[in-house]
Amino acid sequence: MSARPPVVSRVSDLIGNTPLFELCRTPANTRLLLKLEFFNPTGTAKIRMARQMVLDAERSGELRPGGRIVESTSGNTGLGLAVLAAERGYRFTAVVDGHASADKLRAMRAMGAELIYVSDEGEDGLATAAREDFAEQLAHATENAIFTEQHNNPSNAVGYYPVADELCAALPGGVDWLIGAVGTGGSLCGTGVILRGRCPGLRVVGVEPVGSIAFGGPAAPYHQSGTGTPEGATIGALVDFDLIDQGCKVSDADAFATARVLARRTGLMVGGSAGGVVYQALTMLDGLPPGSTMVGLVCDGGEKYLDTVFDDGWMKEHELLDDDLEARVDELLAGLAPGR
Ligand SMILES: Cc1ncc(COP(=O)(O)O)c(C=O)c1O
C-alpha cells in the first residue's frame, strides 16, 4: 500500500486509502467495521477497477491513443471510466438503462461521457443483458474502440487487491469475516482472494438482492442499484463461488430500511446495496465467535439515492416504506452498539 503524496495532479491519484468506520462492537467484543469506499473520487469503489481495466488495456496494446472505451454500466463503473477517459484522452461511451440513478448519469455526462440508453421490457427499465449485448456490438463496430466488459474482465478483480492491502495495514489483528455486495463479483472476490492469503481463517460472505440469481432462488425485479445479477443476465466470471463461503439474499425493504436508519442514527449515508450488506452483517454479528472482526465493503454513498432510497414518496410508491421495519432495524443496531 503506497501512502498518498501530499500533492497530486490527477484525480485517479486520489483513489484508495479509504477510511474504516467502526459501526458497532458487541459486548463480546465482536465488531463491525465498514470500509467506506465512497471516499474514493466519484464516490464509489468502482473507480478502482475502472483504473485497472484502462491501464491493463493500455499495457496490452488493446486501447490505443485517442481510442474509445465502451462499457455497459449501472452508473458507478461509468463514473470511474469517465474520469480515466478524461484524464488519459480517450472517448467514453456508457451504455445505460432506466435503472441508473439520474445523478450518476448527469455526472458521467458532465465529465464528457456519451450516454446511450438501452431499454427492455423489464420492470423499471433494468436491461442488464440488453445493455451488455449492445455495448459489445457497438465496440465491435467502432474503429479503435474497446469493450471493457467488466463482468468478465480479470482486471476488475485485480483493481481491488489494494483494498486487502489497506485492510491488513489498518488491522494488524487481521480480518475474520469479509462481507460485501456481489454484482460482477470484482470487489468482494478481488479483495477476498488477497485477504484470505493473509488471514487464512477468513470467511467471505456475499450479499445479493432477493430476486438476483447468483445465489439461487427465484428471479424477481429488485431496486438495489448496481448489485446482483438480474434475470436474463449471465453470472459474471469473477463471482468466485469457491471463495465465497456464504451467499445471502437481502430484500430491498431490509436494505433500504437499514440505509435510512444508519443515516438518522449515525449520520453515515450509504447506498442501497451497502444497506443490504450492513443489514446482513447486523443479523450475523451476535452469532460470531467473541472478539471477531467483520469488515463490510460499502460500495457507494447515499447521496446518489436521495431521489429513491431516501425519498419517502419514492419509497411509498414502490411499497417499501415500512416504519415498523425501520424501528426493528434501529433496535437491532442499538442492541449491538451500546452507548452509541
Ligand atoms: C452500488 C453498487 N453496489 C454494489 C456493486 C457490486 O460490486 P461488484 O460489481 O464489484 O460486485 C456495484 C457495482 O457496480 C454498485 O454500483
CATH topology grouping of the largest domain: Rossmann fold
Name of the CATH architecture of the largest domain: 3-Layer(aba) Sandwich
Oligomer: single chain
Structural class: alpha/beta
Arithmetic mean pLDDT: 94
Binned, the helix content reads: 25-40%
Structural domain count = 2
- Overall geometry: globular
Short description:
It contains 11 helices and 10 strands.
Descriptive report:
With 340 residues, the protein is α/β, with parallel strands linked by helices. The protein folds into two domains: 11-43 and 160-333, Rossmann fold (3-Layer(aba) Sandwich); 46-154, 3-Layer(aba) Sandwich (Rossmann fold), CATH 3.40.50.1100. The chain has eleven helices and ten strands. The strands form two sheets. Strands 1-2-10-7-8-9 form a six-stranded mixed β-sheet. It has a four-stranded parallel β-sheet with strand order 5-4-3-6, sandwiched between helices. Helix 3 links the parallel strand 4 and strand 5. Helix 1 crosses helix 2 (76-88), helix 2 (76-88) packs parallel to helix 3 and helix 9 (272-285) crosses helix 11 (323-336). It is globular, with a radius of gyration of 19 Å. Pyridoxal-5'-phosphate binds next to helix 2 and helix 7.
